[in-house]
What does this fold into?
Amino acid sequence: MNLVGFLINFCKDYLKIVEYIKSTKPTCHVYTITNGSYKTKEWWTNFASISNEYDTINFSVDGYDPNDLYRVNSNFESIMLGMKQINEIYMSYRNFTLCKFKICK
It folds into this structure.
């Protein structure tokens, strides 16, 4: 089951949805794709506690400095907070790519 990032950012019930999926079928592979922007440490802690070894989270970070040049309305500090929090709890990054783009005139 693939859940894309806009759900994390715009669906207030995202954690409840994942929790329901995992409570009904714990071995279901939930593949979350997000840039991870604007979530709190508490939110990431809750997300990690619901997830298990069958799940994957893919942080899609579009650029480093300035990140919001490529990803409008993003916040690099909150993205890094999410990646660090997930890593500290128990999950690993399955796909982490950091790119810096050069704008040519």
Observations:
- The two ends are 41 Å apart (CA to CA).
- The helical segments are 5-10, 14-24, 41-50, 76-89.
- DSSP finds four helices and four strands in the chain.
- Residues 92-105 have pLDDT under 50 and may be disordered.
